[in-house]
Amino acid sequence: MKTSHHGSFAVAALCAFLVACGGSGDTPPTVLPASVAIANDARADAGTPATFHTDVATNAGLTFRWDFGDGSSGSGATTSHAYAKPGTYTVTVAVANDAEELRTATSTIQVGAYANVKGLQCSQADSTGWCWQHALLTGHQINDVFFVDASHAWAVGNDLTLLKSADGGATWTPVPLDPTLPSAGLVAVRFYDGKHGMVLTDQGGALQTADGGTTWAPVSTSNISSGASSFVDYGPHRILVQSNNGNGALSMDGGSTWSYVGLWGPIQASPSDCWSVNWYAVQRAAGCSADTTTMLSNNIVNGNQSFVAGAFPSDHQALVVGYGYANGNYTWTAQAWASADAGATWTNFVPSGLPSYFSSGMALRMTDEQTGILYSLNDFTAYLTTDAGRDWTFITSSPSLAQASGYRATGVTVDGALWQVAGSHVSISTDRGQTWHDAVVHAEDAAVQAGLPGPMTVTQYSDANDFVVTISHRFYVTNDGGQSFRQVLGGDPRDAGAAYATVEFSDFHTGKVLTSNGALLSTADGGRTWTRLDYPTTTGTAVAMRFTSATEGWLVLGGKLAHSTDGGATWSTPLTDFGMTNLQGMSWGDAAHGWTWNNGQLFVTANAGVTWTAVVMPNGMSVSSAAMTGALTGVATGYYGSAATTQDGGVTWQAVVSPPALGTLVRTTGQTVWALNGYALQRSKDGGRTWQVAGPTNSYVTYSGIAFADDLHGWLISNGSVLSTIDGGDTWTSQPVGSDLALTAVVAVDPMTAWVVTRDGQILATATGGN
């Protein structure tokens, strides 16, 4: 938007403007103020009236004429005006009396699409910078969710993301933390009552609260624990954490002081002591101290035990089960060791009822000294003992899970509930497998379950009715035993694993995003809300989309060109003559003229897609990318460093001297075309006839998207981050977006309004140019 400057009015206009040209007889004219100033807000929302008034004390005998800088005018001492588009506008007021005397004043107002991002989580304060719009409350990966009760919940994520909910996870509020805290990912959160909670960081530290989360204070455990941590035990009297590198830390005073737990391997806690077990030995730390006792080392090592699991239901009772070769016997078998005196002595025996082989990822949990479950972490194998490990019986899985596809897993909760998952299905048993409560976590997405990454895990279990599951950082909660689940945090499951295909906005409030799985997201309010359309009957990947009007659109989906005449509600597949299959891209010069190609042949239309013609390229060039710069002009690149331009819609072509390296062509404005590849960014200002290296370059760079609002203002996605330019791409400046998700695409409608899309089709927006 160009800035308008108006300091005075033409004489002819003034004559019409004043009460009368030439005064009003013997009556003295109204005295004009010595100066005039305009009062208005520094910025206003596009489409929303902004109010302007002057500092004139009285308006009796005076006339006011306003020029709002966009071709519109107004009158009155106080007036209002709604700007149709974002931009910087100069407002002028002329105050006149009946003697043709005149005072003028000017003011500037910044108009933007601020409603697009108002109140959202943004990278800068006061809804500035880049703001998270679609699917996630925050641009950071969520790592853990914990429900204090049915209503109150907490969530943590990367880059010090801390969220709270007071309505069962329906809505979440970001909790600001001390800005002087070092950057860290928050990996786990626990509360033992409504007031006392703790959050662990991936740097070996922690944050804790004693007032229900109103304030959080840092707790340093870095001298004894480093890396991402997990809770082993969290309560009012004992806090026990373990880092990924195996170090354990213990606090007996609510986190004020910490001591080292001298165990190697996954730590388990009995009422007073700490234990660990692995394929090498069993270790016990009395009182969870730094001093440890190593047990069963010779038995396990000499017995060649490959898989070992242990459980410690009390300070004195222990059970260890191992699979491997028995001493002097090369037959694979199960062995067990039991202790009733805190590991001082052990009884070795061969358990009855267990199979001769058990898969990897074996785990054991005892709910009391007699009862326990031995299970595989990555399938449905599970066995029950009620006599401290002497005899075992196979636990039959839920029949419904046997029909489910996807990653399989089994687990046992702290209070002994057995759960198994497969794909989107979960089953819970509170009677050790005699009966099962089956549920589907997100049935609305059953058609695309095969594409969802696993595994699903039960992350918090309160009782058979209330529990939380997670699938790849998406969190679901049920309060009715699995009859229904609510997704409380994370991206849309239907977009899991789906890359961005293309995004376009026709103005600051109307836009569409197409993901590679064929999901079309549409917005009419600048991205505040999105309507989703899916194409489950279409196979293949979506790679390109273009709407040439509000109703007519084209997309390349599954290697074919699809056409819509109803704004994307329905699609048809038009001509596939001349080998129009395996299409890889598309470009349009206007509503009638378009190109599409299939990594070899270029096809053109001059009648809005009614017919298509295969083009003969010069020197047999095999087209890899193309960009139209007008109805009849454009450029195409081919393999092995070839390129050509056309001035007649593709009828004839002229070879380009020193063409750009192979890459994706993107037209930004006018005749400006960019070539994006893995190590360089090249620009042509003359429709592809000549090229120059532009933008940041290094041997590790990857460019995935570029967009310009005008000849000067643009954005570039480089190595998953945003760069901006205000000089047409001669220089670029990094713009933090407040997200650790990989960014892949950008679109802009004016110098202040733009959107970026992540690899999974999530969306961020800016109404302040990204600043």
Task: Please describe what this structure looks like.
The protein is mostly beta strands and 771 residues long. Among the domains are: 102 residues, Immunoglobulin-like; 121 residues, Neuraminidase, CATH 2.120.10. 2% of the residues lie in helices and 42% in strands. A hairpin with a 5-residue loop joins strand 4 and strand 5.
What does the main sheet amount to? 5 strands, mixed
Strand content: 35-45%
The N- and C-terminal alpha carbons lie at a distance of 18 Å
Could you report the average pLDDT, rounded to the nearest whole number? Answer: 85
- Helix share bin: under 10%
Whole-number radius of gyration?
34 Å
Helices, by number, come to 3
CATH fold-level label of the domain at 141-261: Neuraminidase
CATH architect. name of the domain at 141-261 = 6 Propeller
Annotation, overall tally of beta strands: 68
Unreliable stretches (pLDDT < 50, length at least 5) are: 1-25, 444-453
